[in-house]
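ARCHIVE CARD
Drawer: 12
Card no.: 0347
Subject: one protein chain, sequence and derived structure
Cross-reference: see card 0346
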Amino acid sequence: MISQKEYAQRRKKIGINLPNNSAVLLFSAELKQRSFDTEYKFRQNSHFYYLTGCIEDKSAILLLKQNNQLKTYLFVEPKNKELELWHGKRIGVKKAKKRFLVDDVFSNKKLKHKLKQLEIDYLYGDIKDSRLQKYKKKFQVNDILDSIRLLRLIKSKSEIKLIKKALKITQEAHHFVMDMQKQGKYEYEIEAELEYRFLKNGAYSNAYSSIVAGGNRANTLHYIKNDKKLKSEQLLLIDAGAEYQYYASDITRTIPVDEISREQKEIYTLVLETQEKIIGMIKPGVLRSQLQKKSIKLLTKGLIELGILKGNLQKLIKKEKYKKYYPHGIGHYMGLDVHDDVLYKDTNGNEIPLAKGMIITIEPGIYINKGDKNVPKEYRGIGVRIEDNILVTKKGYKNLSKKIKK
């Protein structure tokens, strides 16, 4: 659980860099239509949640900096018994004043009036949000998201604790699937077992659409159909993670449906050894691009040794021949979003190095399509990815998902 004191501290950090006589206006997420008069399950905007902890739609937050003092105002949907009958209870203004550590709470109906009264020089927010753009005639509108993204790079102790909980839930789900009889099952049966355990153990939902890919389907990186039957002697790639109190986990394991061939084991071993070496490099000051470069070298070298790539190591890397089999990055930052909406480069365009408190995924992979006739037949149709969630510590790293079996 994130305390209201921590949310207030985050807002204070945003306020420090605001010019005097300015304001920040951020809106909650909106309900998204699924079809006709039904909506998708609501999920709060991560930036809005990061500064408020509020999980209701039709809400907004206003940070007002005047006379070098920061005031915070929250706007929420007022109580309405008739609407609550259909859509559930609302916190309302009165209870919101008790729950949230802000200067005042108003009905969202008063937001326009409050903004009309403001005498400020700058208004900040999400400049892509049409709700903010309505005020550009009255104020000079600027973007605030990069300031929030910079803060979100470093996770607090409370955030790390929630991610650990998400990973514990994910661990139970993956371990159950590893132990179950898989031959003859459909991919969606595996998906159901995973997501049942997410929900059963208190996860809000899965952190992203689960990938359950048997055999050659693992070579489609974002395969989410999950509708085919698993066959004997296939590998099964599972990329699935729980989300707990809005914080993500992101885990990939590749396991045999039953038996594993020599060639499957060779590819798996190459990916696993590469992952272990890349994780061992993690510490403050290291660049993500250095991890990427090293993973490319290790995987390309391994592919040459297996006869899948042919030629000089440096020339193959320079010509990017590895991309056919390793087309993605070594990993991404993770937090409130599985692909965390944070900064990778500073205002000068320089890559931001790893620092204590960052959480990054490390996920090398090798993907060999069954139709690739340039590869020895025994390797065709093999797809392997292994992914862990790594916390950067003061002097090195901690693998938060170490207990999830490989």
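Annotation on reverse: The chain has a mean pLDDT of 97. The two ends are 30 Å apart (CA to CA).
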